[in-house]
């Protein structure tokens, strides 16, 4: 997982603050945390990615997976404050058009 993950949670919305790298070593923990929150009834996620220094294809895959799960529930993933590394990669891959991105 990124070196720091903070979760503020209520039954409907989870706000997760990611810090560090989102890569093959950390993506599984994010997947597990999100899965447990969805199982608990969370229908909306906001990921604060201001502190993400590095993201690779495995991190992008997790963002897409989360968004797809939420879309099935009638919601969308919201990416808050993407760092320049995240913003660049979202733009290069076109995911900035699929996800809700709030600077």
Task: Describe the model.
The chain is globular. The protein starts with a strand and ends with a strand. It is α/β, with parallel strands linked by helices and 103 residues long. The protein has a single domain (4-102), classed as Transcription Regulator spoIIAA (2-Layer Sandwich), CATH 3.30.750. The protein has 4 helices and 5 strands; from the N terminus they run E-E-H-E-H-E-H-H-E. Strands 1-2-3-4-5 form a 5-stranded mixed sheet, with helices on both faces.
In short, what is this structure?
This protein has 103 residues and is of the alpha/beta class. It has helices at 27-39, 57-71, 84-93, 95-98, and strands at residues 4-9, 13-22, 44-55, 77-80, 100-102.
Helix content: 40-55%
CATH classification, class level: Alpha Beta
What is the number of helical segments per DSSP (H or I, 4+ residues)?
4
Largest β sheet strand count, sense and barrel closure:
5 strands, mixed
The CATH topology comes to Transcription Regulator spoIIAA
Detail the poorly predicted runs: none
Strand order in space, largest sheet:
1-2-3-4-5
User: If you compute it from the alpha carbons, what radius of gyration comes out, rounded to the nearest whole angstrom?
Assistant: 12 Å
Series of H and E elements: EEHEHEHHE
In the CATH classification, which architecture applies? 2-Layer Sandwich
What portion of the residues fall into strands of 2 or more residues?
25-35%
How many strand elements? 5
Which descriptor suits the 3D outline? globular
Mean pLDDT score: 88
Structural class: alpha/beta
Distance between the amino and carboxyl termini: 23 Å
CATH-defined superfamily: STAS domain
Q: What's the structural domain tally? A: 1
